[in-house]
């Protein structure tokens, strides 16, 4: 396999060389989709699996597509046929011209990625075989304690039989920056239980110098990389080859996989300190990694689509995307982009798709995950925090970022700034880095010995940097970083005022400031949580580039995403403070998404016949609206002093609420929605018929379906013009039960639900009619809830969101 890799590298490099410099200067990468149906769509005899037959315990007469080999002879022959059609098209349309085909897509979408000029792209767009030509675009990357915080050890894991079997038989595909196969979180010999590779999975492990044969095992069952589009961004052929080499050899260094499926009970040792044991949400699930993101620049859609297409063909059950686009997709709707449309086909194939909401909050409409078939996850804090404190001689206490020990005992130590501890032959003008302690050889050891050394750089949050925060920095000696600029000023004022100068020489005669550090190695679990982090992207969901609101609630849910421990490669350099360590603590919605991916594996394990939307429903309707103190979940409203601006979270901040892992395994009622429903929704968008045909091969009839009409576990109305009636259908997957409904209406809206009480037998469905009437004119969003309370103890909640309300039509005569 390594030989094949190098052959492919040489072929690509030679092809680029032969193109005579055709690259991003005069050409670009385009994603071309063709009208012929992809492999997942073509066989009309295959039952459509976007919607499942839901029954108690997950036993169903509906055949799951995962029971049909996705690499069967029929699929393989048809896929080969599609590739031949693609190649024939390029030869005919661009005869005698230079171009470079980077990928063939054939499983989820029928198309290819190609490096061509804009003029060539125009030629292809005019061909009758071509459905759509889209310019490639860039994308970006958006525990020990969180299993306990989510109640897994006493709840969901117990129901599954314990952590040694939690997630068994489920394969999660990660589209991310890769994986370190040597990490103990991904070993397959730590459990006494059997660990067979699921029969429905057919992926492979690519072999490279840093990912040798044998790197995969029964837990890490697949590893591939995709970088063809990224390589074309380099202007020099030598740099292309070097980039390819660096990308592939550093196969994967991020830790999202360990959050979802990392082994149970792995010691977290950082800077010589033990911070407890780590575990993924589904520690016995399997991992398949599809590397399409790279350090510094992120990645490109053409590579991501190739990764998604391959993951689906390999047979993954869940796709976890810790990535978002760098811009809102252009066109008539945000949903029509190559990534989301490939994921729509993945949903049809029975794959649950979870995506990070993005780190572009807290502004409204900052959402970077758009489509209703994608489960979008925002980031919340959990109750653990590592704080250390600087106690000054004037009894003021300043909070710092932890993961470092404190000073010994109660003794106070003299404060000395690095710039005041120079050797006699050293000046600031001759060494600009001395104030940052980057070169200790210039420091006077007699001055600093036994004292607290102050670095000349005080770390604090830059208010102009969106979605950034200081991560706790591990240190093997007493230390502290002050993250607040206000606290930094207080500290420096105390230090400067305590200096005693020599009036004759002008030099410092005595350092009068003293302090001690109280260590930050012990975790504190009293922090109010969960709460929505300021950087977590917010709704309402933007339907198009003009920011019109969609009738779809985003995010779907929030999960732990702030200060999350996870497996880390010692070669990883994405976070410099954890360089050389095997674990790192990182924040972002990238950390939230794999929490949900792992919990979805537990649901899929218990309910094998669940459709993707059924899994989404189970997670959503059982979410909690309250923090651990019993108050409402709060949402931070600014990135400057975020805790001082927080207020109760709305569905546009937290979706249905904070995930409840144990309750999601026994939801009682399910809101199910399938591929045909999503097609009707897309066809209902004004002017969408040609685009739907181009992406899916389906012809739109007359459709008035909006996002509000989809059978989702939420109701969102962007514009309530006087009144509107919405239908929802629930399916009972538990025992016979009687449900009573109660609701609170959004401000400015009256709501009624029929029937307000109903009996529903196991496996049966019940239609519900929601009537909304505007009672005032308003363009401000307001929110409500509907609760379903079962006689056997089940409880489901769905959020109601109404943005604009109009009580009457006003006509100017």
TrEMBL record:
Stretches assigned to the Peptidase S8/S53 domain: 167-630
Domain of life: Eukaryota
Positions annotated as active site in the UniProt record: 176, 264, 590
The entry's keywords: Glycoprotein, Hydrolase, Protease, Serine protease, Signal
Matching SUPFAM superfamilies: Subtilisin-like
GO cellular component, one term: extracellular region
UniProt keyword Protease, yes or no: yes
GO molecular function, one term: serine-type endopeptidase activity
Family the UniProt entry places it in: Belongs to the peptidase S8 family.
Protein name as annotated: Subtilisin-like protease SBT2.2
